[in-house]
UniProtKB/TrEMBL annotation:
SUPFAM superfamilies: Multiheme cytochromes. Residues 150-170 are annotated as: Disordered. GO terms for molecular function: electron transfer activity; metal ion binding. The keyword Calcium does not apply. Transmembrane segments: none annotated. Keywords: Cell membrane, Electron transport, Heme, Iron, Membrane, Metal-binding, Transmembrane, Transmembrane helix, Transport. This is NapC/NirT family cytochrome c. InterPro entries: Cytochrome_c-type_ET, Multihaem_cyt_sf, NapC/NirT_cyt_c_N, NapC/NirT_cytc_sf. Belongs to the NapC/NirT/NrfH family. GO terms for cellular component: plasma membrane. It is found in: Cell membrane. Residues 11-145 form the NapC/NirT cytochrome c N-terminal domain. GO terms for biological process: anaerobic respiration.
Length: 170
């Protein structure tokens, strides 16, 4: 078999190898993009309410992992994603009785989400005082998830002095 491969024109083998490489790269990129998407994340029945509230939020154009994964390095992101994914697979297959009714982020995930909030909203932090709490989700815990996060107050403009009084939060 190996001798037959050596007899094939080298240019043909190079072109074939390049085409296979392009196909594998393209399929890997598409697969990773799908695994980052809200459509993939909502496949688990425990994420239905989070998905619904997310799709009705101002952040609906983002991918779940824009907020929930670290962005310092691709390796760190993939490691964190694999670790979380294995936990999710375990709970959704073997540990279904251990799945809580309400899912809360771990402390590690909260830190990552806070760093990602700050990264995206840096201009807001320089324009509005945000020293009231220790993390973004202390005040904004229902953004973009949360039952009834768009209450009657959401679409009304702030009253005079309200933002200053609440240091930018609600």
């Amino acid at each position: 078999m190996f001798k037959k491969l050596l007899k094939i024109d080298k240019r043909f083998l190079i072109v074939l190898a390049l085409l296979v490489g392009v196909f594998l790269s393209f399929s890997t990129v598409k697969t990773m993009a799908y695994l980052d998407s809200p459509g993939f994340c909502q496949n688990c029945h425990t994420m239905k309410s989070q998905y619904a509230s997310f799709m009705d939020s101002t952040h609906a154009e983002l991918q779940c992992n824009d907020c929930h994964l670290p962005h310092e390095s691709e390796t760190g992101k993939l490691f964190f994603k694999a670790r979380a994914g294995m936990t999710h697979i375990y709970f959704n297959t073997l540990g279904t009785e251990d799945i809580p009714d309400v899912i809360h982020a771990t402390d590690r995930t909260k830190n990552i989400m806070n760093e990602n909030c700050i990264s995206c909203h840096q201009s807001t932090l320089t324009n509005v005082s945000h020293d009231a709490k220790d993390s973004c989700i202390s005040c904004h815990k229902t953004v973009p998830h949360g039952k009834g996060f768009k209450d009657d107050h959401f679409n009304k403009p702030p009253k005079s002095g309200e933002l200053l009084e609440n240091k930018g939060g609600f």
